[in-house]
Write a structure and sequence with these properties.
single chain, 72 residues, mainly alpha
């Protein structure tokens, strides 16, 4: 009887170890996926920042032209 309980305990511990191993693998994969998503998001933000700066420059240039035309 004691051997059965001990065997059951060992089996449960082995199953827990296997489950924890799977969870670690899944967590590693999720972490890698999140890193890729963060990199992609950073690139998109950088691209949007560049576009907004270009638009701001063009707008400023147009405002100067309009001011020049109005002052004539």
């Amino acid at each position: 009887m004691a051997d059965e309980a001990e065997n059951l305990t060992l089996r449960i511990l082995q199953e827990l170890r296997a489950d924890l191993g799977e969870m670690r693998t899944e967590a590693r994969e999720l972490r890698a996926e999140m890193h890729e998503m963060r990199t992609d998001l950073t690139q998109r933000i950088d691209g949007n920042t560049l576009l907004l700066n270009l638009i701001a420059g063009v707008t400023h240039d147009h405002e100067q032209r309009i001011t020049t035309l109005v002052s004539r």
